[in-house]
Amino acid sequence: MTSKVIAFLFVFILSVQGGFDDWKYETPTRSIQALKPKGLRVFLPGDPRIKLFLFEGYIQNDTQNTSVFLNKRDFWGFGQKQKNRDGWIFEDRNIALEVGQTIVHRSFVSIGNPFIKTNGTNKDALLQLAGYYSPMGIFTVEVLEDPAARGAHCPETATKVRGGYACAQEVIFEDNFDNFREDLWQIEQYIPFNHPEHPFVSYQRPLSSDSNSNIFIENGFLNIVPKLQQDILKQKNESIQTGALDLLSGCTGDTCVMKATGVNVLPPIVSGRLTSARFAFTYGTIYIRAKLPRGDWIYPEILLESSTKKYGSLNYASGLLKVVLSRGNVDTNSRHHSIHEISGGPVINAKCRDSLEFYYKKMSEGYWSDDFHEYALQWTPERISLDVDGVNFATYLPGPAGLRAWLPQSCRGEWYQLFRNASAMAPFDHHFQIALGVAVGGTMEFPDGLKSGGKPKPWNNRGRKATLSFWQDKENWLPTWTQPGLVVDYVKVVAL
């Protein structure tokens, strides 16, 4: 530290020493933890009026009294306002404390404008801290706590975080997409053959040199935009009916190589998918502000998906939570399968999902893709609730029999045995991660018999030529892709 900075701090401390005891303000009660192997943590509950918090004190011995406070400090410093919790925390990880020791301490808070000018001209007036010193307190060390131990600064919560812990109402994950953060997101690269919805896409990492990327950040928004695979293949004089796909470099899934043969064409669409592979949690509230894609046979993937496959991966056995879903078709013979409605909720069996999918209309004019909306899913040990723009539109209560009670008998099958000894919330009782992406087509999201723009869906969900039939209808669906991308403003997860 330079002498100039030292001098500044010295003057600053002297200003604090003066005190402002004529302020009629009662400082919130602070809590103190002695840490191991060494350290001191102080939590001051929040008060919106507090603009500055300073904590100071000394380790007392038998011959000292509180009059030494003015000329002895073993620790002092400014507390940090907690972004994710309502309060301030001061920490000193260098001070060594022992069980049985006593510290004498006090705090200083400024409310309103922390600085006032003393008498003098504008040229020579001095700034002095204005605020209130608390009465001196006594803290006796009874135990040395692990720094990760919960204290008053970290109220208990049902939320669990993989590899760590959470505090009540804490923001445990947040991204505003000012830039792409590889510490938060993994860009997936694979062909989703084992995906129960079998979308007609391959998920691919964008090349750094690709100026027409399918995943990019622009003006503080994440964009995931599906592209035609054919446009990429034709640069190599290949096509989806004769070419090959090699995604081994950067592969994140089970299948990353494919060669077109006969009716088994390559996935016609290149799309993007992100997962919070380094972050997973159990119970909490996720908020996502996004603009949904528009275009025939497009749908967003805004999900919480199992990160551990606790109950197995077959047909969503370990569960999936759809934060929001809205099919991109504008003109269909089914509102459920159009941009006019949103839905969401828990899924464990793709074939029987209608028994658990909750729909919400709301839009009397326009489409859900016209603007940004905040979609929220609250996941607790007792229920799953869905909100849009702060309005609740669905709540799933598993009841005494758990998820089994919601499924028709024909859909229970192996899940009845699988969850027999599990919690009522099973399979939604373990760590899930966030997934963001865009999918197209597939064999589950759009039922046979659906019409869009008066034309029938071009493929049969059980047909061997499903992908090829979709591709051959390009002249009908591609012109509808007026806004094919998913645009995300922010993602935030808050502990219960």
TrEMBL record:
Q: Which InterPro entries match?
A: Beta-glucanase-like, BGBP_N, BGBP_N_sf, ConA-like_dom_sf, Glycosyl_Hydrlase_16
Ranges for domain GH16: 127-496
A Gene Ontology biological process noted in the UniProt record is:
innate immune response
Task: Give the UniProt keywords, A-Z.
Answer: Immunity, Innate immunity, Signal
What Pfam families is this protein classified in?
Answer: CBM39
Please verify whether the record's keywords include Signal: yes
Signal peptide residue numbers: 1-18
Q: Name one GO molecular function term.
A: hydrolase activity, hydrolyzing O-glycosyl compounds
Which superkingdom does the taxonomy of this entry point to? Eukaryota
Q: Which residues form the CBM39 domain?
A: 25-146
PANTHER family according to UniProt? GLYCOSYL HYDROLASE-RELATED, GRAM-NEGATIVE BACTERIA-BINDING PROTEIN 1-RELATED
* Annotated family: Belongs to the insect beta-1,3-glucan binding protein family.
What is this protein identified as? Beta-1,3-glucan-binding protein-like
Q: From which source organism is this entry? A: Vanessa tameamea (Kamehameha butterfly)
> Coding gene?
LOC113399258
